[in-house]
Amino acid sequence: MKHNILFLVLCPCFCLGQRTDTTFTLQEVVVTGSLQERPVTKSPGSIQLLTPVLLRNSPAQNVDDILVMLSGVNSTRSDGIGNMHSNVSIRGLAGDEQGRTLVLFDGIPINTSDEGSVNWNSLHTENIQRIEVFKGPGSSLYGNNAMGGVINIISKKPLAPFSVNASVSYGTLNTWKTSAGISSRINEQFALFISGYYNRTDGFNNIPDSLRTAPDYSIARFMKEGGVYAKLLYSPTTWWNAEIACDLYRDKRGEGEKIEAPEGEYRRFNHHRIQTRFYGEKKAFSYNLACYFQRQDYFKLDERITKNAYQRFDVKSDRDDWGAILHLRFAGKYNEFAIGSEFKNGSIDGGDYYVTSPDKVVNQGTMTFLSVFVQDELNFWKERFWLQLALRYDNAFFHKGSFEAAGDNVADFNEYNGALSNNRWDNFSPRVALRYNPGPAVSVYLSYARGFRASILDDLCRSGWMWVGPKIANPYLGPEKIDNYEIGGRFRLLPGLSLSPALYYARGKEFLYYIATGKKLWGRMDIYQRRNISKVNLKGLETDLDYTPVSGLKININYSYNHSEIKDFDEKPELNGKALTYAPRHQLKGYVLWTGKTIDAMLRGRYKTRQYTTEDNASSIAGFAVWDVQVSRRFFRNRLYVSGEILNIFDNRHMNTKDYRSAGRLANIKLAANINKD
């Protein structure tokens, strides 16, 4: 199976007419590693960039479907556009925990404080210009959640005086996707970007036969979603620039089970995001101030048969995150000095409200962060050496926590009712990194960094049911921490051929795990609580081989090895030496991309080995390989665009999580029109 992938990604099979507007070089400019635009070779760390060309030509239906092709990145998405929820992890930090990888949209965090999650379905690819992925701890600049790395999604900006676009696609499972947008550089000061989309699919029944029970209430998991994104830019001078963006998203996703409710169980993840930025520069000084608000209105209709009686309750949660980030930068002859601060407030107001009885379970809580950071980047010996020194201090405060269970069906949790204790903790996140560029063909770096991840509000203030069984809140939880040591670089082996390896070793401590409290529910079921307990060791290797034999043709092969295991777990010694969940030991991926005058095409393949789904490694899902292809062509001076894609060409009905199988082969055809006024 591995050899088949290698054959496919190595085969330069698209020898068609060339187009010369696509270049691939080692001088890609990124901002995520240092908060300042600079070539990758001057940023001391492992950074990968998804360019507009890769975003446009990748056979994928979601942003995380594109990210999964990068070395060291793993995703739990299993059933395409209809997937209820997916996580993206970097470097083996437990793929079922999104909170250990920070996700930014235009430099602003979008992980929720309640779950640490990111709704990847709400990120529309048509709004994205490029994506930067910083691997390894990024807490020295970005703070919470940046343990495994940072994913920075950068939105499009209007360039042409006037542009209108629209598209429609149809595919397997009666899947429709439509979008439209307009952008305009109105004048030298104002620019506007607006886009909207609506998608739907009938879905499929993704419960394997082996997991179905009698009576079988399972049905297809439908999906309906739509969103509107708007951004206004005002740029009167280089010293004063302003942006305001608003993102509205609505969806409804079937859970795949129906008993009495007309549409069966379903969930809604409704988002409201507002982001503002003020920035500018004058001579050696620049500033960036961002303010943001994000609300996720979450709803779940849950129905079940308990003791031959029908029971239904609705889960309703308001998840709010808001804050401000300030960066100031001073550029000298041999250094760039930056200072900054951040304020963030995350809260949850949620509960389970029974429809078939008067019972309810309500939880509330707030986490507030106040942070400052300082960074200095020095260059010397004619910019051959780049040294980065950074330190961030975070002070976290959990407060306004409360829990209430009322009613006969939830009476067993009554003893945990009432206000929860406040909890305050702080954390320092240092980073030291050095990059050496002896010549244009060689660039190497060495780094040490500490990352952290705060507990989610769900663990701090909610008592109820989790996958382990009944659990109670723990307001005293502190942060998980990790120390990462890394060496890597980029080497140009031949003209057009480069190798980018990275070797890392990380030690984590105070990782969160569920521990039996010694109390019993109904006298027989252990009651659990999450606690900062274990130590974790990670070691791994990532390497990318990029080859551009001719203009317009790019070949990438990448391999990742990750060995992550639990260490020194005194409360559960039987878990010592066990691998983290959803962290494949080996991943092999690659693609061939051709961008020509008459046709664009990408063929890609990926393979990953077995993933454990339980902490004791007693259960796992098998490794699998998937191949995808997309072919597109532009007509009438790029005003009309036609593309076709096939995902999972060989219909591999694999499992990417322990509960759901994949949709198998998915085919889509897309027609798009674009009108530009130069």
What does this structure look like?
This protein is mainly beta. Helices cover about 5% and strands about 60% of the residues. The protein contains 5 helices and 36 strands. The protein has a 22-stranded antiparallel barrel. β24 and β25 form a beta hairpin.
Overview features:
single chain, 678 residues, mainly beta, 22-stranded antiparallel β-barrel, 5-stranded mixed beta sheet, 5 helices, 4% helix, 58% strand, disordered N terminus
C-alpha-based Rg, rounded: 25 Å
Q: On the 0-100 scale, what is the average pLDDT?
A: 91
Helical content stands at: under 10%
Briefly note the structural class of the backbone: mainly beta
Concise synopsis of the structure shown:
By secondary structure, the chain is mainly beta.
Helix-strand layout with pairing:
Blueprint lengths: L1 H9 L18 E2 L7 E2 L6 E5 L1 H6 L5 H5 L5 E3 L12 E3 L11 E4 L2 E2 L18 E8 L3 H4 L6 E7 L6 E10 L3 E10 L5 E12 L21 E12 L6 E14 L11 E17 L2 E22 L2 E23 L3 E20 L5 E21 L4 E22 L11 E2 L3 E17 L2 E12 L3 H5 L2 E3 L2 E4 L7 E15 L2 E25 L3 E23 L5 E15 L18 E10 L4 E9 L2 E2 L7 E2 L2 E12 L4 E8 L18 E12 L1
